[in-house]
Fold this protein.
Amino acid sequence: MSQKTVTYKAFSEILCPQYPFARLLVLFMSLAVFTVLLCALNFVFREFYIDRFISQTALAATAHKDEYIDIYTVGLRFDAKLAYLMMLPAVAISFFALVHEVFYRPIVKIIAAWVGVCAFTMMTLTLANMNCLGAYDYPLTLDQVQAFFADPSSALAKFPIFFDVIMTLFVTILFVGLWQRLTMIFSTSSLWHTEGWINWLIVLCCFCGLMWTSAQTSITSTTPLTVSAAKISKEPMINYLVMNAPISVLWSDKLGVLGQPQTPSQDTNP
């Protein structure tokens, strides 16, 4: 039986496999791509964090080599947790691709939009977090996010919002473009062109393994990830650099365990 493929021009070259299970796996692979890109983006962010808040400060003389390594390795666990939380809605909607190929195009569009929303949110919170760390020596908190929406003009007057907006839009477009390109490459693979259940089950097991590892943030441990895992140093600032900005905001009520060099002002906005 020949394989029929459909190309959706709105997201060029993302093919729709004829077989329902293959359609589902292509969507799952697109989410695996999203996870890799998200972790890579946070890796780059930590480079900027370390350069600005350690290398260019007095901490450069006291920070240990192991702490630099832990910022990346422990930070990756928090990135995996974030990717898992962001993937869940897309995973749920992907199952509609099993019903009929007519659902595939809307699902691709919805996932693409969701990828853009996640990248935009990631960039916005990360740049706001950098501003807060630079101004108050303390990470962005949920209270500050709420304060911003209550009085956005105050934050707009204090920080370089124009640069942040340009950078956020640029990185978001680049992120979605890379996601689309890599998803297209996976969708054109010969793996989906023939009915091969063994290969498909292997792909499914790999994706389930990715989901499990992301949920548990470890291959072997079943201990839930907590804020205390980010406490890798006696220096609070080093600890603050471990978590990504969205997780930091989500768990901001527990950041006290990382240390408080100074109490952030209650009326400050990111």
Notes: The chain is about 65% helix and 0% strand. Residues 6-258 form one domain. The beta strands are 6-8, 14-16. The chain has a mean pLDDT of 84.
